[in-house]
Amino acid sequence: MMKICRGGHIILPTQNYIVLEPVLNDLMLEFLYKTRQLGVDKMADGSYVIDKHTADYVQGLVRMAMADVRSGNKPAGYNDSEATYRLIFPICEGNIAFYVEATTSSTIITDVTKSLSELLTKHGIAHKVDWDSASMPAEKATTKPKRRR
User: Fold this and answer.
1) How far, in Å, CA of 99 to CA of 28, rounded?
2) Cα–chain center distance at 69
3) Residue 39, class by beta-carbon neighbours within 10 Å (0-12 exposed, 13-18 middle, 19+ buried)?
4) DSSP category for residue 85
5) 85 pLDDT exceeds 50?
6) Half-sphere exposure of 65 (CA within 13 A, CB side)
7) Is pLDDT of 140 > 60?
8) Which of 30, 58, 96, 146 could form a disulfide with 12 if both were Cys (CB 3.0 to 4.6 A apart)?
9) Using an 8 Å Cβ cutoff, are 43 and 51 in contact?
């Protein structure tokens, strides 16, 4: 059964952002590829290709995020106010967390979150996925609630 979510949260059992260094570049590019934003495409060999019109911007986003992580700080992610999908690293106490958010309910959030989780697993980074409490089965999301009398 397909679920519609506004966000998929990934939580790491650590407080040190440096753990994301080996995977952050791929996390950001995979997010942009899966959400079809900023002209990022993926080749058969798993490498990413960035459209020449957005390459400088995308490379700058990734470079800034990597600099933050290397210095132990929270990366900005991708939180453009015009974006349909966002990759958010919230300020939180305790464990590191990040999530994928859509401006509207979307079935793509599940796929994107699973892809990011698979990348973390591939790099041996312990984490858990917590689905937004606002998620619901797709068929229920399209029906109006019954009114009580």
Assistant:
1) 12
2) 16
3) middle
4) E
5) yes
6) 25
7) no
8) 96
9) no
